[in-house]
Structure formats: structure tokens, C-alpha cells
Amino acid sequence: MTPGPTAVPEPVRAAMSEELINPDVDPRFQDVYRDVVDDLSAIYGVAGVDTHDVVVPGGEGILGLEAAIASLVEPGTEVVCLSNGLYGDGFADFVEGYGGDATLVTTDPDGPLPLDELEATLNDGTFALATMVHCETPTGTLNDLGRALDLFEEHNVLTVVDAVSSLGGVPVPTDRIDVCLGASQKCFSAPPGLTTAAISERAWEAMEERAARSLYTNFLPWRDTEDGFPYTHLTSNVVALRTALALVRDEGIDETYARHEEVAAYCRSRADEIGVPLYPDPKRSSPTVTALHVPGEAKALQERIRAEHDIILATGLGDGADDILRIGHMGHAARRERVARTMDAIDAVIE
Fold it and tell me: Which pTM value belongs to this model?
């Protein structure tokens, strides 16, 4: 019950065990890849439109975060990184690593995005690119991106959004985002190993204007894969993701969102009954992960729940490593019976 990688359901495991399709020479693999792109386009909300292309490179979700920066940043590129958490701050490290100039607009992890400071920063500077995170998984926070996207549109700034822990469990405003990033191992409950991205036309144009310094951390070679892929694709992962996405399609994306909302509400009502507070403001808590505030006790509780109840939870990261206990109710794990068992275990060990 961790916030990624999530438990993989049996149909997805079975698909991954099927006979290998050679992605370089077997034409059947192109059909598999197109199925994945089509289903992802529907989940991203860009199916049937020409504003965005969906691509699925081989590489765990962090590849997408780095590739977005590597594809859009060159020495001297001015980037504003809007953040209220570990992954938001991390974008600035990628920017600096590729020679860009990062301006980090950040606040405490338990606070909302610092939009007033962002507005002042945009008014005082000229930026080509902006980064932010939709769901800050380490704190269980879902950020409302609306006002930030308004500001970036007003200043004609390209946007990169990490939606790795929200895509497929929460609606994402992809139509307003230039590079919207996801991954296989979160709300889709497929094995880790694939990045997903919905990329706008103007982002492609910006990538084409920059001198590529990498093959692997570069989205451009994935724009047109009709004649082959930039490198040998992770065949079994793609087949598994196709099955995982088919499960979402069969359920219906609106029904999937509703299930995540209902399970999250149940999880938090049980936490309230037990007497364990949430880390973020409940109004900003993500439907995909609940972060409980247990100062100094997270690691001990994690170990007891694993040893005594055979349930794996996650602690916080960074400064919150021993203060936050995280329950991932995303994808296959967003089931009431699974969350009920988890909360029963927490109730049994909490003091």
C-alpha cells in the first residue's frame, strides 16, 4: 500500500509474462505501442485533438522529469521552478545540471504554492520555462495549478508539470500544460519502467530549436516512431501497461476518479477515528495518497505494520522521513477493502 510502485493486479502480471515481442523487427509491437498511446491520450484528455502528442519512452518516471529539462533547457535558459516540496525543488537541480538558470519560488512543504511570490517573480524577470508538481507525493499534497497556469499563460512561459502521482487517479489540466509527465508504476498499477508524456506543439518547436546533448534524456526522437524507436523498447513493460490501461478504460476514467475520491475520504475518516492527523491541510490532500503526521514514529510504525500485519507502507522523504507515514491508495490499491485492512493495522499498532 505504498504510493508507488503500487501493487500490480494479476491480469497485468500475466500480460508481462507473455512471449516476448521483438520491438525492433516484429510489426506487432507497433500495434501494442499505438494501443498504449491511444489509451493514454484519452486519460490525458487529448484524444482526437492536435494540440498534444503522447509519447512513452523506456525509463522509470524520473526519466521524464530529467528529459523534459534536457529537451528544453540549454546554457542560459531562464527557468522558474514553483515548489512546495521535494520534487518541486528537485526540478531546479535538473535545470542547473543542464546549464540553465533556475529561480526557485518555494515554500514550506505543508503550505500551498506561493502564488503571490510567483506573480512578483514573473513580473520582475523574463522566463522561458516553468516547472511545478501536481501531486507532491512525499507530503500527500495535491496542488491546485489553475492560478499558476493563468500566470504562466499571461507571461507566455512554457510549462512542465510532474503529474506522475496523479495521472490516472485525478483529473489533470493537460490542455493547459506543455509537457505533462506521468509514469507506469503509480495510478496505472503497472510495473515501473516507463515514462509517459503529453507534449504540446509549441514545446516540440522549442525542443527543435535547441541543440540536443543527449539521446536517452531527449523527447524529440520519440515524436515519430512509425519507422522505429530510438532504442530497443522495454517490450514486456509496454505490454503490461497496455493491459493496465485497458482495465482503466473498461472501468471508465470518471468512475476511476470517483473511486479514488471515495477511498481517500474513507481512509481519512478512519484516520480521524483513530486520532491520527493528516500532514497537509485536508482540503489539499491528494485522492491518491494520504500522509499521516506521526512525529518521530513513522519508521517504527512502518516496521511494526509490515512485521505484524504483512502490509507495506511508506514513510516520508527528506526531512519528513520519520514524521510522515504514507498510505498509497492509487490504482489497484484504491479499493475500500484494502484501505480498511490497512487502517485496521494502523489502529492496532498506534499508541
Answer: 0.96
